[in-house]
Amino acid sequence: MTDQRYLKRTILKETVPSKYLSEGNRNLRVFLPPGYNELLSYPVVYCQDGEDFFNFGRIATSATALILDEGLEPFIIVGVDVDKSVRTEEYAPDGSRHAAYVLFFGEELVPFIEERFAARRSKEDRLLAGDSLGGSVSLHVALSYPQLFTRIISLSGAFYPVSQQIIAECDDLSWLSLYMIIGLQETAFETDRGIFDFVELNRNAKALLEQRGAHMYYEERDGKHQWGYWQKDVPDALKHFIEVE
What top-level branch of life does the organism fall under (predicted)? Predict the structure, then answer.
């Protein structure tokens, strides 16, 4: 039987107005940790594919258990929804909506959250998380806003050649910390850009990042390119960056 403490969660629906996004706004879901108190302040995890992170990644359930059972410092989670029909255009760095999405993230989303919630405002207390293209767009947001973001969770990141080229053009990435996992059964995954060997993409990205001084946690293990694999890793990914009180 599920412990009822894990089911008593506060998840709010919010809408961020935007002058950068063509639709003029973006829907969010915001998890507030157990015991949330506006007089305190909390780290914030920003998730691409917000709906999937909550529904398939079960991140709110994992966060509640980590906070209540393992003593992790309470934290806020912001899930940023995406229209799957334009996801690649927003998340891929050569997509037609990518520049606008990155501007929205840095110029509108972060201020919106920090004005409305008891969010810490240091770059060490903001965390970006994403799966597949969500992992790579998290990196590109951090590269565009290093004053805001220095920590990234990438679950089977889609580090296509254009992303690798952008990494290669960077000089010093010693300010950046990444948690990267990849499934060993992801060697021929079909995407809307073609079939890719995600293991090779991640190995190449890891090498480029390490050569530029980025701090890496990197692991390859059995798994496919799907939430059944990533969901199991969400708790460890969160524990990598969020400390025990």
Answer: Bacteria
pLDDT tier for residue 70 given thresholds of 50, 70 and 90: very high
Complete DSSP assignment for 126-141? EEEEEETHHHHHHHHH
- CB 161: neighbour CB atoms within 10 A? 13
**Average pLDDT taken over every residue of the chain:** 96
- DSSP states along 77-145: EEEE---GGGHHHHHSTTSTTHHHHHHIIIIIIHHHHHHHS-B--SGGGEEEEEETHHHHHHHHHHHH-
CATH number at residue 220: 3.40.50.1820
Domain that holds residue 52: 4-241
* Digit-coded pLDDT (tens) for 32-64: 999 999 999 999 999 999 999 999 999 999 999
Q: What percent of the chain has pLDDT over 90?
A: 96
Residues in the chain: 245
The phi and psi torsions of 61 (rounded to 5 degrees) equal: -65, -45
Gap between the Cα atoms of 1 and 75, Å rounded: 26
- Measured CA to CA, the distance from residue 110 to residue 121 in angstroms comes to 9
Total domains present in the chain: 1
Q: Residue 1 above 50 pLDDT?
A: no
Contact 71, 83 (CB under 8 A): no
* Angle at 168 (CA atoms; ends 162, 174), nearest 5 degrees: 125
Whether the CB-CB separation of 227 and 155 falls below 8 Å is answered with no
CA distance 234 to 63: 9
Kindly report whether the global pTM for this prediction surpasses the value 0.70. Answer: yes
